[in-house]
Amino acid sequence: MKYIIVGLGNFGASLAEKLTAQGNEVIGIDTSMSKVDTFKEKISHTICMDATDEFTVAGLPLKDTDIVIIAIGEDQGSNIMVTAIFKNLEVKRLISRAINPLHEKVLKALGVDEIVYPEQETAERWAKKLCMKNVVDSYELGEDYSIIEANVPEEHIGQTIQEVRFRENFNLLVLTTIRKKEVKSILGKTKTESKVQGVATPDFMLEQDDILVLYGSNKDLEKFLKMKTE
């Protein structure tokens, strides 16, 4: 996978380092030459440039980039301007950092694909979400083990938990599953809610939109989810 990360503060730099370490190609951008120098050996590529300059941004390899992440956190104005520029240049997938609820509303109005909340989410968590196929969320339990929420892989739809044989084949434990259901409000309107299904049983049938809550080593989780290499 190929990424562009704008803003090499604590969150942006940490995410760029982790994605690079996992074999991805990352372009890290910042206006500070000292930050660019600091991380040039830890990130695939680092560039000192002003990302609020649309002409300069247009010269980046945007068509070859899978995901652009705007990690600027110190200056909301710059964050919004840079986000708008990348959105106008029609990048494949755009993720931006929100500082507060108002900032979040502005980013949503710009049409970003996803919003990051670094004060609540770690770079390690986002690295898993970006690099592991089908991951919805993750929770680190030390350096080597995690609990993750993941979409059911296509090849296992229609199978029971027993048929997949998570422990035998993948050395993973299914803690529970989450299923989306249509419910009606007291006003008669229909909405979708996610409901935890309780302790996973061997005969539970996996459906297309189900979410698995899995526990295991990071290595085994990555193997099961077929880590993205492109």
From TrEMBL:
Short name of one Pfam family: TrkA_N
GO biological process annotation, one example: potassium ion transport
Gene3D superfamilies: NAD(P)-binding Rossmann-like Domain (3.40.50.720), Regulator of K+ conductance, C-terminal domain (3.30.70.1450)
Domain of life: Bacteria
Segments forming domain RCK C-terminal: 134-230
Alphabetized SUPFAM superfamilies for the sequence: NAD(P)-binding Rossmann-fold domains, TrkA C-terminal domain-like
Protein's name in the database: Potassium transporter TrkA
